[in-house]
Amino acid sequence: MGYFSNNLLNAPEYTTFETFPISTENEQQIKAAKQLADDPFSFRCMFFHLPADQRLHLKYALINQLADKDHIVDSVNIADFIEGLLEALRQGAGCSYARYYVDSDILLVDDLQLMANKETTQETFYAHILKPRIEAGLPTVMLSECSHEELSGSLRKDLHNLLRLGLYADS
């Protein structure tokens, strides 16, 4: 069984792709997420733009499908990431904090829109977590209630370009 941090093994068992309410708006996203769950290392970066309830269901469905595989999966909400980053910086442990997320086989990042207009957080996330993960061939799944177009003015250009150029699944 895979290892999931942040108590992710507590994802409700009934939250699967089979129980996901599929519509014409999210059909392609579910297809892409199923592909990711079947072969997580076939993608470097995937961005999903979904309403909050669908993002949570999608995240738990991914976790449940990956539970039988031997992967280290981590999930972080951007608000928790920012809080942890600030604490790590206060303690002089910023590098080890970033390394924790780089070392996960699969990283799920939720509420990306909360990073908007937070330059230092974006710099740390992109330069010290996302870029090393991409270079190492490790998949990162980012979820947001905002589309990449809505985030364009509030994200660093390199981060926004990655969202725009990566596999993008929009509702």
Please provide a written account of the structure.
With 171 residues, the protein is of the alpha/beta class. It is built from 7 helices and 6 strands; from the N terminus they run E-H-E-H-E-H-H-E-H-E-H-H-E. It has helices at 27-38, 52-66, 78-90, 94-102, 119-135, 148-151, 157-165, and strands at residues 3-4, 45-49, 72-77, 106-110, 140-144, 167-170. Strands 1-3-4-5-2-6 form a 6-stranded parallel β-sheet, with helices on both faces. Helix 5 (119-135) links the parallel strand 4 (106-110) and strand 5 (140-144). Helix 1 (27-38) packs parallel to helix 2 (52-66) and helix 4 (94-102) crosses helix 5 (119-135). The longest helix is centred in the last third of the chain and has 17 residues, at 119-135. The protein is globular. The termini are far apart. Residues 1-7 have low confidence and may be disordered.
Features:
171 residues, alpha/beta, six-stranded parallel β-sheet, 6 strands, disordered N terminus
Summary, kept brief:
By secondary structure, the chain is α/β, with parallel strands linked by helices. It has seven helices and six strands; from the N terminus they run βαβαβααβαβααβ. Residues 1-7 have low confidence and may be disordered.
